[in-house]
Amino acid sequence: MEKTFAIIKPDAFAAGSAGKILARIYAEGFKVVGIKKLYMSKVEAEGFYYVHKERPFFAELTEFMSSGPCLVMALEAKGAIKKWRDLMGATNPAEAAEGTLRKEFGTNIGENATHGSDAPETAAFEIPYFFSGLELI
Which domains does the chain have, with CATH numbers? Predict the structure, then answer.
């Protein structure tokens, strides 16, 4: 089994969609091995998204991610990283396939409802950023 990291972002919480997204995660066969509702500080968001520090959207991204509550999760499934990315859909909801989370719940490229690790190395950084080993079941 493979683990991946996922976030239900502040826009999904504001729209009342977090529960629907979580239900889809379970329905698609993921095991939720870690889950926390939290309000990311700007500093925490900057640390989490440090790989984008030089990108022009960094300030906007970290401001958005610290604008409201989110749900951070460690998910487990066979091929979890690809499976989660397929379920999320394209980063831009306008380009996402029908039936994906971002198509259904995302608003725009910046407020697209969900985040997910894109590689095993990314998951290896992202999961322990929010979870200690004792918190993963």
Answer: 2-132 (3.30.70.141)
